Amino acid sequence: MDHAQHTRLDVSEYTEAVLTGATVYGPGDETVGTISHTHGTGQGAQVVIDVGGFLGIGAKPVLVPVAQLDLMRDESREVHAVCNWTKDELKSMPEHRD
What share of the chain is helix, strand, coil (3-state, %, to 5)? Predict the structure, then answer.
């Protein structure tokens, strides 16, 4: 997927309602996880990414700063994120528990 033409989100859109369910793509444009929920809003927010598993079963939740994601909308207005982590790197992060 070519993200160059996608519209970047404004920091005011870094909210639970906008980000929940967004697919997260890694450096090779592979799907590495899904944003399950957020902590906070705006530039200081953190997101919980569910990594691995199948249909949410067996996924490992990890917490990352929203500032380390490139958040955007595609041509269909679907929100997604691009990060520099591979799926294995995310899986090696500490498990997040709410």
Answer: 20, 35, 40
Question: For 1-98, where are the alpha helices, taking DSSP H only?
Answer: 16-19, 87-91
87: pLDDT strictly greater than 70: yes
Q: What is the pTM of this model?
A: 0.92
d(CA 91, CA 10): 28
Evaluated on CA atoms 28, 29, 32, 35, the torsion sign reads positive
Letter string b/e over residues 54-83, b meaning 16 or more CB atoms within 10 A of that residue's CB: eeeeebbbbbbebeebebbbeeeeebbbbb
Instruction: Tell me what percent of the residues of the chain surpass a pLDDT of 70.
Output: 97
